[in-house]
Specification:
The chain is mainly alpha-helical. It contains 15 helices and no strands.
Length: 288
């Protein structure tokens, strides 16, 4: 059973306007008893019953809404958060095994939060604020550990670091990242020259005056062309000569003449001669 097939079963979350209708519809769907949930999960697990999957998904949409509300403080559209949570719910339903003996809601919460977490990290800032495991932990726990507005005190820093099992350096760095505000790359269209005489956007001062786009493109094209010609020229060499050229010139861990001599049971001087002859052939082949 594919996720995209299951996805069509869920109510469509409106991307614009009010989502109250969606929420009301989701909460109007009856919750399942433990016996009914077990029956549906067994039908899905054993017989790939899509109707059972649909009922399992629809009856748990209200729970996704509840989880998504906990991420409202990141400034992202609630509809998007719910939709991502629905994806996690569908993944959980697909993988749920009724024989384990737990309710679906307990199993699904991890999948729902995982999808929402990834969505928040991808979209909350253009510059990613959390890349390591410690930073991700901090990103989703820093706000709830703050007891006041403003910067942390030393005691708060130490308490958060100890509670979350990270270093104080990680706490300070994440607080700094989360406190910074994104700046538009260009001034908005309604800001004319007179109104923004003292304003500068990154587009105005981040230009690299030393870069020539035409030259860069030309150099890239020439490099690709040269690499293609080298690849074609290597094919014309015998296998031993190809190996000598690659191991002597085209790898980071370059072989010595003696290493190749031992490999082919010839003298180092003979390897040098083969290398010279191969380079001459390559040069003649690649001459334009």
């Amino acid at each position: 059973m594919r996720i995209n097939t299951m996805q069509s079963m869920a109510l469509t979350v409106p991307r614009s306007g009010s989502i109250e209708t969606y929420v009301q519809s989701a909460y109007s769907i009856p919750m399942l008893t433990a016996e009914r949930e077990q029956e549906l999960a067994t039908r899905l697990h054993q017989h790939d019953d899509l109707q059972a999957a649909q009922e399992l998904i629809m009856s748990h949409l209200r729970f996704v809404i509840h989880v998504a509300k906990g991420y409202a403080g990141y400034g992202l559209p609630q509809a998007d958060l719910i939709q991502e949570g629905n994806v996690g719910l569908m993944k959980a339903v697909k993988r749920f095994n009724p024989e384990v003996g737990v309710r679906l809601v307990s199993f699904a919460v991890h999948w729902i939060k995982a999808e929402i977490h990834e969505f928040v990290l991808r979209n909350w800032r253009i510059v990613k604020v959390a890349t390591t495991k410690a930073q991700r932990k901090l990103f989703f726990n820093l706000r709830k550990n703050k007891k006041r507005l403003g910067w942390f005190s030393n005691d708060e820093i130490n308490n958060v670091a100890e509670t979350l099992g990270v270093s104080t350096k990680d706490v300070l760095e994440m607080e700094s990242r989360m406190s910074n505000q994104d700046q538009a790359f260009e001034l908005s269209s309604d800001e004319d020259d007179s109104a923004s005489a003292g304003s500068f956007s990154p587009a105005q001062y981040l230009e690299d005056k030393q870069s020539d786009l035409a030259t860069i493109v030309e150099d890239d094209n020439w490099e690709n062309h040269a690499n293609q010609r080298l690849t074609s020229a290597l094919v014309d060499l015998d296998e031993r000569s190809q190996d000598i050229i690659r191991t002597r010139w085209l790898t980071d861990d370059k072989a010595t003449l003696q290493e190749l001599a031992d490999k082919y049971q010839i003298s180092a001087e003979r390897v040098r001669q083969l290398e010279k002859n191969a380079l001459t052939k390559l040069k003649n082949t690649m001459v334009i």
